[in-house]
Task: structure prediction
Amino acid sequence: MKRNVEVEKKEMLQEKILRLYEKEYFIKTLKIPEQYINGFLFYVCEDKSAVDLFKGQDKMLQMFKLSDLATEYLKTIKKEDSK
Result:
């Protein structure tokens, strides 16, 4: 039961992020390939500090955090693609 609640919270956060930032933001600004956007959102929701930031209203800090996480995520998928 607790696990279902955690999954639901993460799904709700992913939806919130997509409402705040359109797909074009992820593709053009963060350089996340379109096919990886959902994976990136999952990655963001696994980061405790990002989750905490999205509980607040500071869009600038959220954008900085998304940018940092995008850089890390792109390195991760690049490693996966090269295997």
Observations:
- The two ends are 37 Å apart (CA to CA).
- Residues 2-81 form one domain.
- The chain has a mean pLDDT of 94.
- Residues 59-81 form the longest helix (23 residues).
